[in-house]
Amino acid sequence: MENGPETLESCVSNKNIFATFLYNARLYMLACKARRLQVYSSDLTSCNAKLDFEQENVNLGWQYTRTILIGNNLFVAQIRSGKLICYNIDMLDKQASRIHVEEDVDKIAFFDSKVVFARKSTKTLLTFDLFEKTTEVVLDIADLEQSPSFECPICLERADTPKIFPVCGHSICSGCEEILAVVDLIQQTKTLACPECRKSIVLPLGENLPTNWALKKHVALKTFTSSETFDTLNCLTCKALLNKESAFHCDFCALENQTVDWVLCGACAINGHRGHMDHVKNAVFVSTSDKSKKLSSILCSFERLSMEKADTMKQLKENVEAFYTSADREMKAINKKLRELHRLSAVTENALNAESEKLENQRTLLYQKKAKFDEWKKTVLDGFSQLSSTSS
């Protein structure tokens, strides 16, 4: 059943809309009254809305609703009087079906294709697979609450994505990893020293420390079980629980009420903030001027990064040229020293040869003198022998 188009503002003001989401570049709104689900859509360019389809016997409302779009299926998880109710809305077939009901539920969230929920009585954390329709106990919340939270040893903040040092097992947050890195442009590497034990690791440029998945899961679960996670996602007008992707933020109301942020659901943003819609921020409500500003900012950032890259490449080229010039100068000096050593070696060899020849000549003269002395000695001895024989 489809009706003719009506204005988006009148659609929101007259319907019990409890959730909004984006699908195929259109804004969809879910409304439910007297167990009848109604799905409205708007292209936002003409600010007109129409009823896409409706279905009887669907018990949904605005209380504590979470939605996730996977392919053409919109999954809705909702807590009503401590009961978890899950629906699957097929956007192609335009029909909704209830897929799961769970009692005694406190908090809910989506993680990939699973609904994560906490059970109050047993203080356990469970997951329900939206496609396999199976429920699994994840952990005991009491043990998790007693375990310490991870804080980055550098900035002392809770890290959502901890990075681990493989050399020692200590972890830091991803933001401090960039601050800690010491870059070597010539070697194209970066060195990171663990802030706790000072052990170092050298990584190629562009490569980061691996994620500590065990600690990341622990931090995510501890964040999920803490109440502060859900307080920041409540619509301040109708108190509906919102996904971060579907939340709107009104800068005007935040300034008027002197608060850091003013969170709204899509229905309340359209219905109650039309007079200052230019202050309401969300991906589907960004004005053309804001888009131009963001585009200009992106282009400026890109130009700045390009200039920084050009400067870095120029500096790297100068460093490489200086290195090669210095190396060439050193090689010339080494070759000069080698030639000098060869010359000195040749001179020394000639001197040694001359000295050796001189000594050889002296030895020859000594041999000649010895031979003459031996001959003279023999002559003298022969003379003495003749004298002795004559005397006798």
From TrEMBL:
Coiled coil spans: none
Domain RING-type: 152-198
InterPro entries associated with the record: E3_ubiquitin-ligase_RING, Znf-RING_euk, Znf_RING, Znf_RING/FYVE/PHD
GO molecular function, one term: zinc ion binding
Alphabetized UniProt keyword annotations: Metal-binding, Zinc, Zinc-finger
Superkingdom of source: Eukaryota
Pfam families on file: zf-RING_UBOX
Name of this chain's protein: RING-type domain-containing protein
